Amino acid sequence: MEQKRLREIQAFILEKTRQNANRFGDKLPHATVNGQYDFMDNGFWVGGFWTGLLWLAFEATGDAAWAEAARRSRNRFTKRLYEERETTDHDLGFLFSLSSVADYRLTGDQAARQHALDAAEALAERFNPPGNYIQAWNVWTPGDPFSEENRGRIIIDCMYNLPLLFWASEETGDDKYREIAIAQADTCAKTIVRPDRTTFHTYLFDPESGEPLRGKTHQGYADDSCWSRGQTWAIGGYAHAYRYTRKPEYMQLAKELAQVYIDRLEDDLVPMWDFAFAGGQEGEPRDTSAGAIAAASFLEMASLLPEEEGAYYRRLAERIVESLYENYSTKDEPKQEGLLKEATGHKPADSNINVSLIYGDYYFAEAVARLLGETEVYW
User: Fold this and answer.
1) pLDDT tens per residue, range 91-115
2) Of 17, 159, 289, 311, which is the most exposed, with the fewest CB atoms less than 10 Å away?
3) In whole angstroms, how far apart are CA 278 and each of 170, 228, 232, 271, 290?
């Protein structure tokens, strides 16, 4: 991909992000409504993606104003971690890798380091030793059957949260965090990843004995279908796990998961929201956020593989980025606050369909930064 084209895409990202930062203040965006981002007071599970986008801008420009913008939301992350711990779950990695870890790595800020370590400890506390897994969600409504199942639930998204634990082990020298991350990755590989290398969205265990029970979906089409964004969480999750452990089975699994994803892509390399509808079906939406996560994940794989093999994934990521920019970006729609259109949040709940999602925007920007060689990997 030509540098000139990448610089054009980067300029689009930076300008729209600058305009948004001026409006958002310390707020944390989630999804667009009529082209304008809504906000989650405590960040929900997505708050880190906005700060991550701002840190990418800081890396690209060296302008301290971006660091200042990224830190405006620190009060919300601090309150969430220390005063509202009951609202946190396995998404502590998403929240604090792209806010606190990014801040510390780029600036050496010691308060950010401590917040990230405390978040890693909170994530480690969710580990269930009998089942060798990290409990994903909390029991939101005691007595409700679905909510009660959360005591023994993992979800594929957690694979992308594990780098917080790997980082904490490297930072502190305490192997506890690393061992928990490896246990989660190994358990996920045996349960939530199917033999054909498609993935369940969630998997249930007996929380007392740790016995594996069954796979279920929540955001996918059906229990036995393959939710496209979940597949990308798995691809990138195992690629990042390989970066930290160099366990060859993790990279092998990432490649097998990637091939399943690639084989089910649409002609323009952007997937349907669930691969049950691969090939397109009237009334069923795409998910550009899955496409963006895939591009960033393929670039992570490319950075870790031998040059010739890695070049395949880099070229694929370049083609995805080009398609997202040309066919799905808001480059010609200045009133749209998101970077990418046609993302799908939670189709079964009819929530956030054909919108911009902050995590789709983030991974699109991360992929561009990686292609330009202008980002230090936070994960």
Assistant:
1) 999 999 999 999 999 999 999 999 9
2) 311
3) 41, 10, 15, 7, 14
Strand partners for 204: 153, 214
Q: What residues does each domain of the chain span?
A: 15-342+353-372
Pairing between strand 351-355 and 343-346? antiparallel
Cβ pair 226, 275 in contact under 8 A: yes
What CA–CA distances, in Å, run from 374 to 69, 100, 298, 366? 19, 19, 17, 9
Q: How many residues does the chain have?
A: 379
**Domain 15-342+353-372 CATH assignment equals 1.50.10.10:** yes
Check residue 308 and give its pLDDT: 96
Q: How many CB atoms sit inside 10 A of residue 109's CB?
A: 17
pLDDT in tens, 263-311: 999 999 999 999 999 999 999 999 999 999 999 999 999 999 999 999 9
DSSP 8-state secondary structure symbol assigned to residue 339: S
DSSP 3-state assignment of 221? Answer: coil
pLDDT for position 211: 98
The residues annotated as belonging to the active site are 91, 157
- Cα→Cα distances 209→131, 132, 152, 241, 298, Å: 7, 11, 10, 26, 37
For 212-270, write each residue's pLDDT tens digit. 999 999 999 999 999 999 999 999 999 999 999 999 999 999 999 999 999 999 999 99
**C-alpha distances out from residue 147 to 50, 127, 164, 190, 352, Å:** 29, 18, 26, 24, 22
- Whether the per-residue pLDDT at 72 is higher than 90: the answer is yes
Question: pTM (2 decimals)?
Answer: 0.98
Question: Which run of H or E residues covers position 71?
Answer: helix 64-71
- Measured distance CA(232)–CA(298) in Å, rounded: 9
Q: Which tokens belong to 25?
A: 């203040």
Neighbours of 256 (CB within 10 A): 15
